[in-house]
Amino acid sequence: MSWVARGSHQSNANANGNANCNGNGNGNGKFSNANRNGKTNSSPWRQKIAQQRKSLPIASVEKRLIEEVRKNDILIIVGETGSGKTTQIPQFLFNAGFCNNGKVVGITQPRRVAAVTVAKRVADECGVELGQKVGYSVRFDDSTSNSTRIKYMTDGLLLREALLDPYLSKYSVIIVDEAHERTVHTDVLMGLLKNVQLARSESINDGQNLNNGNKNANGFMLLDKDNGQNSSFDRKERREKSSPLKLIIMSASLDARTFSEYFGGAKAVHIQGRQFPVDIFYTRYPETDYVDAALITIFQVHLEETHGDILVFLTGQEEIESVERLIKERLTKLPQGSQNLQVVPIYAALPPEQQMRAFAPAPSGFRKVILATNIAETSITIPGIKYVIDPGLVKARSYDPGKGMESLIVVPTSKSQALQRSGRAGREGPGKCFRLYPENEFEKLEDSTMPEIKRCNLSNVILQLKALGVDDILGFDFIEKPSRTAIIKSLEQLFLLGALTDECQLSDPVGRQMARLPLDPDYAKALILASQFNCLEEMLITVAMLSVESIFYTPRDKYEEARTATKCFASPEGDHITLINVYRAATDFLEKRTVEMNKAKSEKVLRKWCNENFINSRSLRHARDIHRQIQGHVQQMGLKLASCGDDMLQFRRCLVASFFLNAAMKQADGTYRAYASGQVVQIHPSSVLFRKKPDCIIFNELIQTNNKYVRNLTRVDSLWLTELAPQFYAMQN
DNA sequence: GAGCACTGC
Known about the structure:
The protein has 733 residues and is of the alpha/beta class. Among the domains are: 22-271, Rossmann fold; 278-450, Rossmann fold. It has 26 helices and 22 strands. It has an eight-stranded mixed β-sheet with strand order 5-4-6-3-7-8-2-9, sandwiched between helices. Strand 12, helix 12 and strand 13 (367-372) form a beta-alpha-beta unit. The longest helix has 22 residues, at 184-205. The radius of gyration is 27 Å and the shape is globular. The model is unreliable at 11-40 and 208-236 (pLDDT under 50). It binds one DNA strand of 9 nucleotides through residues 110-112, 138-140, 154-157, 159-160, 181, 183-185, 315-318, 347-349, 373-375, 377-379, 394-397, 408, 410, 452, 460, 464, 517-519, 549-550, 554, 626, 629, 684-686, 690-691, 703, 705-707, 709, 711.
């Protein structure tokens, strides 16, 4: 293939001259906390860590940064990859006294692994035990204690904390890291933090009259709503609420302006990163077959370029598997001396042990080519990459609120995604990135990926906001507002589920209970109903299993084997009961064997059982975690934890009462028509009812891929619809 | 008769 070279993209924020924080620092790296433990401090390892810290680009600007934080209540920090902002800034703040009087510096991350690994790293740097001064808190895993002052957490977890403490009163500073990723949680959190900050500062300036502090700049009622029951704050509460909250938003350079504008022209400072130059190459002409173009490029790099591993971005598991086959085929046609190429696939659904292969170095004398989905764009960093091949496509999820349908389709990447991908070649030294499209195509790409909040079902978000006391959802200060249709549709859904009253207020107790459960609203409602139908045990298992990704793992090469293995769990009534069967089989298996086993051993035994039964052990473990957590919640709420025993009729009726919005009827041609949206759909091939085609079904997922499919379904009697959901189906007649 | 980017509470 012939290439057009386009200089190097050195994603170094400093290049634009906006270097507020560069070159002015004292450079002496005042790491006073490192001295706390004299013993470890003198160890070579600790000296090495101290050296590494001092050499970070950020170390020289500690003083300047702290000054900026003191001067500005909101600060945008643009820190490029490798600047050390995530690990260092919280330590600077601690040293500057922001954790005095028991206050906490909170740092949010979009991903669990990041929160956990960074916290461990910082605890090491500080020479403290994890969970003391430095800790993390993520779902199912909390290492923090009363003495934790630097707390790393997921953004979703901080949102949950806000439900219990609307003023987030223990935090003096909250840092929202990776804000440019624009996950739903990050976006909602920023809107919320804006309000919290205002409420906390207003209550200082206006301490005489707390009621005036209830409105934010836009005039919406604010968070005091939740405290309406005990409207007179006691002294302590008032003091905590009254201390100001500092906000720091950390982002990549392309998006800094958006955040600055959103926060009323907040100051943005840039911190130099440490990224090596990456030469970008474009194709001369558009490629008609990007898979073939990728193959050709892989071999071009392998045969013509100096040593260094290759990372190829592909759209999905199937594509990765086929490219893997094709590479191996073509390799056999190369001369013996050129066959030293190792192919390694990596995608989220791959079992962890196989994922680890991507991180292991290639055998000596071999070059490694990694075929990855988007997982390698942000979630994981693979060492040794020198060449990136980017076809410029990504499989993206979007949501159509009108049809109530999700879709999963291949679309072009954004410019910032393309930059992120090419940056993967410059982590350890200069690299090259081959974009499989012409340069003028790059110019046509969107600057940033559309934020998730504009392409997902909002019911969950809205229920949370309602529970946080935000009444006017349409008027909420979203950084980017979802469409009016999307908001109205979700309000409608919440109303039909009984979470909202006629006046669009959160209902009590149903709405409040639903908001407390960390589940999709319809699953939360199902649990409340199940306690009345005496099948809460079964529903608890069901929603836990529905909340995780594909329970069944069917590798292409063992297809038949997998099908026979999973057959023994199948229920003629449908997927829900099948999922219950799998869960119970796993639990029974464990209970029989683990009387004398410790936790680690029983995990291992369960993994083996999963492999034998073609069940994804990661998904099952996740479901068991969710089950445990939700069980705790429903018990606290006082819901009746009963089982319907063998009376699955009762359970299926409860499914109808819960998911009545997702009913579909078989049509003459064998396709189905979904009642609520009128969509014509098919049963997904993964369903146990794929061939059975019952007359009337209740489903949980409506998704468009190559076709429109419903997934996770159960056979029901159509008469139950009017009987159990008259509020919806009686109106229709 | 045929399919599952990635996070998160």
